Amino acid sequence: MGPKRAELFAKELGIYTVGDLLRYYPYKYIDRTRIYSIAEISSTQTHIQIRGRITAFRKEGPKYKQRLVAAFSDQTGSIELVWFQGAKWVEKSYEIGVEYIVFGRPALFGRKLNIAHPEIEPAALFENNVGTSLYPQYSLTEKLRAGYISSKTFQKLISGIFQSPSLSIPESLPDYLLKKLRLMPLQEALHKIHLPSSPDQIKRTEYRLKFEELFGIQLKILRQKIGRSQHFKGFVFKKVGDYFNNFYKNNLQFELTEAQKRVMREIRTDLGSGRQMNRLLQGDVGSGKTIVAFMSMLLALDNGYQTCIMAPTEILAMQHLNTIRNLLGKLPLQVMLLTGSTKKKEREIIYSQLQDGSLHILIGTHALLEDPVQFANLGMVVIDEQHRFGVAQRARLWKKNVQAPHVLVMTATPIPRTLAMTLYGDLDVSVIDEMPPGRKPIQTFHFYDSKRLTMYGFLRKQIDRGQQVFIVYPLIEESEKLDYIALEEGYAGISEFFKPPEYTVACVHGRMKTEDKEYGMRLFKEGKAHILIATTVIEVGVDIPNASIMVIESAERFGLSQLHQLRGRVGRGADQSYCIMMTGYKLSNEARKRIETMVNTNDGFEIAEVDLKLRGPGDIEGTLQSGIPFDLKISNLARDGQILQYARNIAEEVLEEDPELADPKNRLLNKILKEMRTTQFDWSVIS
Ligand code: ADP
Ligand code: MG
Q: Does some domain include residue 526?
């Protein structure tokens, strides 16, 4: 191509080489086997193809922005073709009376249908082109369009490349893998992805390219994991000592579920292995992750190490403190809380006790990451509800020690498997896939605001039966002021309906002082308040088994994973629990789908999948901060889960056989890794 075009391609799409061009895949294909009659056309169709003749050209509009209009007809009617630019060229290229195939997007202009900037081809030529009925579409920028570069341009350029007899594209995957996995060779794949001859072929071609992409990522992640385990030794927790045994015999109030037992075994194996543990503990809300974390911490303490828990909110940190104090009972262990609002005097005590080793367990928020927090011998770190923390923050906890502590990352938001494999692919994963016995599935309802009184009546009935109620209001940063007003008004309205002395309503939100928050939470926790009104500060982790009703105000404003988290605050006791989502009448399609999903299922994984599909992986909460560090050209994490899983299995097999990729047959794989390194963010220190 000429220098002008070359510059456009480089600037607009980052395409500098033939290789770049071939790797610029179409985002969809339009099937052009069907030819419509003009009478059939409506403005709701996206792309159509018609066959007919131009009967006249004319110019319209003021001189400085004239447009060229062609009347185009077939036996059934006529339609206008419009050009806003390039009139001269158009008039020269197309003749009146010749039969053409016109392709484009119909639109309504006034009351007339037209097609702006259509693609036009002589019908005679088109007929000779059978077999190329699938037209690839490329995403283009305005500047490219202005430079007369269309999807068709791509098609021409690329078919030109493949007509060159000397073309030879080096294969990217080892021959033995191609054979074993029956993958199409790269050269064929790059050809057919742009110039396919059938939908079936597109599928096989995409499969090859997606596999290659996802396999590369998995290979990289797994290589990093191997590298890390060679690089970092872990503390060996040799013994199960008095703390653990004492707790297990005397303080554990219930029998662990089978899933909890299995995960404990997995963790104990890690802790004794001499490798540093980096484990992601996944389990739906209420599945009982805390107890598992706690018992793991006891193992660290039994071996003479300190431990800490980091939680995303102050309320959750406070709750962990209470839970852990209860669980510890009479065990002679020192526990302290460190958050943003810890007083200076107490901070000083914490800092010095951490350093002389007399403080055994530190619980806190981001405050744990601050520099003065230095441990004597930190052996184990638990990070709760980890989706709230970014990668960089996690990396800072590492540095608290000479030798890397064991890390247990807990997440209650079930990340879809595909995303977990990519984002946390270098962590080992344990899953608690079983709920403690006796839980009844939560019943979920959707009420419009107009049914508020009915809802209050329902609450009253439940409260009179001894149940407690959460009412949660959204709190979004951009509209914080308004949100607080809504909460205050809601509080007033509810207090009106649930009057003292019969009823007590507590309120907790981020603008309150720590003492007041604590007071509100305590009232509710001790069963002295019937209703707790709160912002999303209670979203994660809060555990109050007697609360069996969750009312979510303005539910349409919450994301799916948040809704699921909120609902997870109830359903923890033996009573039937309810979740009520309140919304206005006007709902966007997506909001409606979210609400419907919540009503239809309690399964966190299913919800996570829907969430991923609705929002796309880039936007899933948690990844907002850490981002997907890989640039996916053709795969889609929401849709290509199966290929991803397969790619991971194959990567595991390859590395098991040849961990260093030293075998000559794996030469190409080293090349893949090297190429990724230059383009992608290195995130080897994830936890
Ligand atoms: P999450 O996994 O959401 O963090 P928690 O650890 O807060 O869940 O546990 C939820 C509730 O279930 C707590 O009240 C806890 O005491 C209780 N629980 C945990 N494990 C069991 C079990 N095996 N049997 C009965 N109750 C359990
Ligand atoms: Mg929890």
A: yes
Does ligand 1 lie within 6 Å of residue 289's CB atom? yes
Domains held by the chain: number? 3
- What span, in angstroms and rounded, lies between the C-alpha atoms of 210 and 644? 8
Ligand 2 is an ion; residues with CB less than 5 A from it: 541
* Ligand (nearest to CA of 285): 1
3-state secondary structure of 165: coil
604 Cβ below 6 A of ligand 1: no
The rounded Å distance from CA 315 to ligand 2 centre is 12
**How far apart are alpha carbons 421 and 507 in whole angstroms?**
40
pLDDT in tens, 506-537: 998 878 888 888 888 889 989 999 999 998 76
| pLDDT tens-digit map of 642-684 | 898 899 999 999 999 999 999 999 999 999 888 875 444 333 3
| 394 and 466 belong to one structural domain | no
Q: What is the DSSP letter of 248?
A: I
Q: Whose CA is nearest to atom 25 of ligand 1?
A: 436
Q: Which atom of ligand 1 is nearest to the CA of 545?
A: 14
> Is the C-alpha dihedral spanning 141, 145, 148, 150 positive or negative?
positive
* Alpha-carbon gap, residue 217 to 421, rounded angstroms: 10
Ligand nearest to the CA of 288: 1
Asked whether residue 362 falls in the same domain as residue 456, the answer is no
Question: Is the residue at 545 inside a domain?
Answer: yes
Q: Residues 259, 404: one domain?
A: yes
CATH number at residue 331: 3.40.50.300
Q: Which of 132, 166, 200 is the last residue of a domain?
A: 132
Pocket lining: 390 vs ligand 1, CB cutoff 6 Å: no
456 assigned to some structural domain: yes
pLDDT band for 625, please (50, 70, 90 cuts): very low
- Mapping DSSP to helix (H, G, I), strand (E, B) and coil, where does residue 496 land? helix
pLDDT number for residue 246: 92
Check pocket membership of 174 for ligand 1, CB cut-off 6 A.
Answer: no
Whether residues 338 and 458 share a domain: the answer is: no
* Nearest protein CA to atom 9 of ligand 1, as residue: 288
Question: Which residue of 282, 287, 431, 539 sits with most ligand 1 atoms within 8 Å of its CB, as the best mutation to test the pocket?
Answer: 287
Which structure tokens are listed for 619? 């936007």
170 found inside a domain? no
CA distance 322 to 290: 12
End-to-end distance of the chain based on CA atoms, in angstroms? 48
Q: Which residues of 497-515 are buried (b: 16+ CB within 10 A; e: fewer)?
A: ebeeeebbbbbbbeeeeee
Structure tokens of 21?
A: 């061009």
Alpha carbon nearest to ligand 1 atom 24, residue: 436
Residue 232, SS3? coil
Mean pLDDT of 257-275: 93
How far is it, in rounded angstroms, from Cα 536 to Cα 54? Answer: 63
Q: How far is the CA of 284 from the centre of ligand 2 (A)?
A: 9
Which residue segment(s) compose the domain that 256 sits in? 242-271+288-411
Ligand 1 close to Cβ of residue 436 (< 6 A): yes
